Give the backbone structure.
Amino acid sequence: MRATNEQALTPASPWLTDAQQSTWRDWILVTSRLDTALARQMQNDSAISLADYGVLVYLSEHPEKRERIAALADALQWDRSRLSHQITRMTKRGLVRRELCSNDRRGAFVAIEDHGMEIIKDAAPGHAGAVREHFFEQLDAEDVEDLTRILGKLAAHFRD
């Protein structure tokens, strides 16, 4: 449902203006279609999922090439159950391994395997190319500056 212009001026109104509704729906369309395009590219070019890629990128960039499972779930914004299932699938394919935490029996790590490092090195150029094609090539330099500023504001809101 949409607000009339008068309703939009009232802080208590639960509705979006026509302009806000249009912007929001475009955001939903773009993020959904972008995720689909990136997932399709990843699966076609690398035979791994976008979820696999997210886990492997994080672990490959970590100084120790491993992370506590709880911290990885937080970093990826996934619930622990989803991450646990993902790690199980990736372990079966030799991409990652679970490690026990020697000083905390309740904690566990997930570490990237050599095969996972090879996969991420092979997958990253294609992913970067798809991000450029579907995202950055659609924008000019001023658009990127504006979007960077806007996303910075939104990110700050969610970090707080």
